[in-house]
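Sample entry (744 residues):
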Amino acid sequence: MSESLGRSTVSQGFDPLAQLNDSSSGSKTSSSSNKGVLKEVEEMDKRLEKPDLSQVEESKKKAKATKKKGNSEKQKNSEPGSAAVVREKISKNDYELKGQDLLRGEVNRNAEKASYVLGSYAYNGVFYITNFKIVFKPDDVNFLRISGLPSDYFTLPLGLIYRVACKKDAPKAWVMELQSKDCRFLKFNFALTDRCQGFISYLNNAAILATTTPFAFLHYESIEHKPENTGWEVYDVRGEYERIGFDLDRNSDWRLSSANDTRRLCKSYPKYLIVSNKISDNQADKVAQFRTKGRLPAVVWKHKNNDTTISRSSQCMAGLKQNRCAEDESYLGYLAQQNKGDKNLLHIYDARPYINAVANRVKNGAGFESKDFYQNCDIFFLNIPNIHVIRDSFKKMQSICSYAASDSSKFYSQLDSSSWMDYISLILQGTARIAKDSLSNGYSVLIHCSDGWDRTSQLSALAQLCSDPYYRTYKGFQVLVEKEWVSFGFQFALRCSQCNNRQNGDDHNNFSPIFLQFLDCVYQLLCQYPTSFEFNSAFLADLAYHIHSDRYGTFLYNHQADREEFGVREKTLSYWTATDGKKSDYLNPFYDENLEITRRLLEPNHSLKKMKLWEDYFLRYNPCNYYPYPGIYSAHDHMCQMMNDQKTISSSIQIYKDELSRYYKMIASLKKRMDEKGIPYDDIENPAKKSDHATEEHDPRASQGSTERIQTTSQSATPDADTCNEETGERETANAVLNGDTDE
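Predicted structure, serialized as tokens:
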């Protein structure tokens, strides 16, 4: 695989893609095989640069002779002039990616001449596949610029491929349709049927083939000089909870439990959990048994002033028979007692619609808490739909926002029919209620849905984002993602349909853009409070891209236990390492940490009138989002760049002011020393005057001429009163600038 594609094509006849296809379709008869060779030669003659015609005729004769002799397919493809040899001879040097086109650890798999199909037009180029991505390079190097598309439009990591299919576009042409998870819809035309099917066979199997060694491991292994900062130290469990306000060293109401150190309680939970000091590890074990997937209530945030807390869990196993657990009821009672004052009440927010929660009682023997047994609790349902509804909505968004639908005259009606904005509004509405309860109303909160890793993660993270200004900083947001999504077991492999999950037969039934929804909600908050976030929309869009790319280990697998088993921390790079290298691109120039609005609770406006389409993600690969400046994708980005430029210029001006101030102090010091020694300023010889005296002594005629020139100049340049006043004003202004008394 590491050899060049040209070489492997010659030595093997058909390349590995064709072999994959051959192995699945079985052997063909000798007659049909020979006809296929002749047809392939004719197609190559028409489609590629034409070789020597005599050579083509000779290849036809040899193919006919091979038919009579009944030779095998492998022998025929190795004959001079066969399709494989003709293809290799024409484009041997063009069929592989080199240099900067490849990442470390990335190797070429195969390549083929193809055409990008857009409507009734086709654009010729070369289609490449590596062990990390697919790339299409148009023959016209200006195609992307002229079309208004970003430079990475035809670069697609294998992890971002959502669906791929092969369809017959014409009697002699086959089209590969490729749909990505970031709203790209690409169609490529291959003249040869077996080539198109071979590529599709490879792409469909690439995920399974990558399960043994995901690219993140290969990428890290090939780096000679490993970075000192690998990004895995972003989130420190104990340090973060102490920052929040939990006193873990003294006898307090809370403790850091290690009951889940061996994942005994819950495989998808972190090793260390904040629990009430009034509950033992044995009691915590019983609480975990009463919650689906063992996801017992865990405290994740505490208000420093009123001591209210935010906790998260999964649904309880009440069932139709109203099963009870004394330890679970007592534990929620302890959480309610942490409120200051007389508000000993816990608000439970169930993210599901009420009817769905009731259905879980019947179907799974689960359900929700009853007020008859949880007397210090009030329960509220937030009506957020499940993953299947969200997936269907996202499919509609993919169709609406793709390049193929760029000229749609019914864009807004289609956007409304997708209901994507409605679901974003519902999540923000629930977030507002939770954050306001915890901060303003003084109630502790417990959040759960069914299993406690989808809608629960969304609401818990967003509530903390609105409540705690630290999580709105560049570094704090990384900590929030690590804590609420990575460590608490959001199933990235399952919900993002990663390579290492497809080997189990998952056909996107569990795929759902839950994390993307969370990022979209953060984008809405960023638009509503532009000075309260240190990061920008580009940071969120790149994060949404790399949860699928499989380039970094941060988002591999479903939970921490799997990451520890496969050594992700030791054998891959963290995504946060890459972001630190591009931090300047991700900073929001409008952020001001000193503003009062930045430090207080953010109350999301969930009105549909305030919802905005996240163009940096959904229209990132649509030409309608084209902005006529290199490297700038929107008017907002342009404004941000101008703000950054203004800050750079202001910083440079300040540097020059500091330099001028330093020189002024030096001049003042010299004047003081001259005054102390009694040296008048006029006694300092001017070098120019000294040069004139030397010239006059050497040549008297020059002295006379110089005198005449001075007289003539003085007569012709005698200033009037207005000119003198202007010059005096300029000198006063210059002195003021030097003394730092003006902003000019």
